[in-house]
Each structure stands twice: as structure tokens, then as C-alpha cells.
């Protein structure tokens, strides 16, 4: 220690000199710093370190004292926040399931929306169709309205038209009556014309039938063929007046008529299809006939000029013959 004091006392004082134009400050070299020994520096650094540690300790204690309650509060807050976050996480997971359900509902809603869109499209097309129909109906209503106006104007003329119509109806009735009369007259004229035309060709008219008297002798079968070629058959006889007409027209000549039993077992019949009435026909046979001479008399003729005129004869015999066909007026 005395050496240190001595060295501090031996340090030169500062002197300031002015030498002519030079100003100098001396000693020019700075005094050497005291060289503290490690022995002295070490305790000081320890104390400083100790003091620093103490200060840090005190500071930490103070800080703990000051901030501990706040820290505890913060921890509690953090815990409550964590609990809140956990609750929210639970809520989020429950929300996830809810969202999953909602997604299904949303998909169903989307399907229903598509169906609704399809329905709307159809409805829109139907509306368009209805609009077209409405326009057409409107046009038709316009036409009907114009027609109705015309009808309304014509309705005022109905009474006058009704009077004219009554007059014309009466006239029409008279005209129809005259037309019917004229038609009947025309039919009669046509009938007479047809009959006259047939008569001019050698036919005779009686009782609604036409008769053709052929005076060329033929066998019964050839006579029938000749009648068929005239669109007729050998005549049938169904009444006394017809019988009388025939025997008188035959002028006492024996003539074949359409009576035969050929092809049957003794049953007479008319070749033109008329039903043969055996009982009513008995009055037309010559007494004693039919006698079937030689078992070969299978055809009938008018032999005498009398109501009792029929005789059975051999079909191969040749006689004049009488054809008959119903008179059917030609349709004009
Ligand atoms: Ca006979």
C-alpha cells in the first residue's frame, strides 16, 4: 500500500509554457495508469457479482411477488380459455355432424330444385302453348263477333224471310206433287214403252208377265233351252185366268209348258222354280190325264183349248212351246 501512495504522489503536475511561437503542453506523455493488482481487482468483481446476484434475486422475488397473482390469474384465464376452446371444439364436432345432416338435406333440396326446374320448364312450355291457344281463341272470338253482328243484322229480316219461306214451302209442296205425278206418268210411259218394245219382238203381255209363243216344234228340253236363250223359261200356270190366256193364245196348237217330273220319282214341278201346287193343279188336267202312257210321259203340255188342257207326253216329242218371264221394268 505505501508504494501505491508514493507512485500517485510522484505523478508530474501539468505545466503550460509558451516558448515564442510554440505552445506546448507537458508532460507530453500521459501518466501511466495505476496498475491495480489482481489481488485488489478480484474482491471487487466478486462483490459486484454478489451485489448483482443479490439485486437479481431481490428483483426476481419482487417480480414474483408483484406478478404471481397476475400469473395465477393468467393461468386461470388460459385454463378457462382452453376449456372454452375445448367446448368450442366439441361444438364444432357436433356442428360437423349437423353440417353432414344438412349436406344430405341440401342434396335432397338440390334434387327437389332440379325437379322443380323441370316442372317449371314444362309449365313454361305449357304456358306458351296456352298463350298460343289464347291468341287463336281470341282471333276466333273476333271472327265470331263479326259473324254475330252479321247474324244480328240478318235477324231483323227473319220475319220477311219467314213469309217468303212459307210461300216457297207451299210452292215446293205443289212442285213435289207435280214431280211425283210426272214421275209416275214417266214410269207408266216407260213401262208401256218397254212392253210395246217386247210386243214388237213377238212377246205377249199378261198379268205382269211376258210370254213368247214359238211355233217351231221342239222337244221339251230343246224348248226349255230356247226359252233360256230368251232370258226366260217354259211357262208355269198358277191361275185359271192365266190358263185361259195361254190356251186361247195357243190357238188350238199343242204347246209345251214348263211342267215336268223328269229327274224326280213321279213328282211334278215347274221348271221356272214356281212352287207346284198338286191339289190346285188338278183342275187343269184333261180328265184321265196324266196317264203316263208307256211309262214314258214325263213332260206336260197344253193340248186342248179348255181350262182342262194339260196332258202328260213323252219329253222327246216335238211341240211348239210357250216361254214366260216376269216383266221387270228397266230402271231409267
Ligand atoms: Ca198322257
TrEMBL record:
Listed Pfam families: Lectin_C
Subunit and interaction comment: Homotrimer.
GO cellular component: membrane
Span of domain C-type lectin: 206-324
SMART domains according to UniProt: CLECT
Transmembrane parts of this sequence: 48-68
Gene name per UniProt: LOC100757258
InterPro entries: C-type_lectin-like, C-type_lectin-like/link_sf, C-type_lectin/snaclec_domain, C-type_lectin_CS, CD209-like_CTLD, CTDL_fold
Cellular localisation: Membrane
Organism this protein belongs to: Cricetulus griseus
Keywords: Coiled coil, Disulfide bond, Glycoprotein, Lectin, Membrane, Signal-anchor, Transmembrane, Transmembrane helix
Membrane topology: Single-pass type II membrane protein
Tree of life domain: Eukaryota
Name of protein: C-type lectin domain family 4 member K
An annotated Gene Ontology molecular function: carbohydrate binding
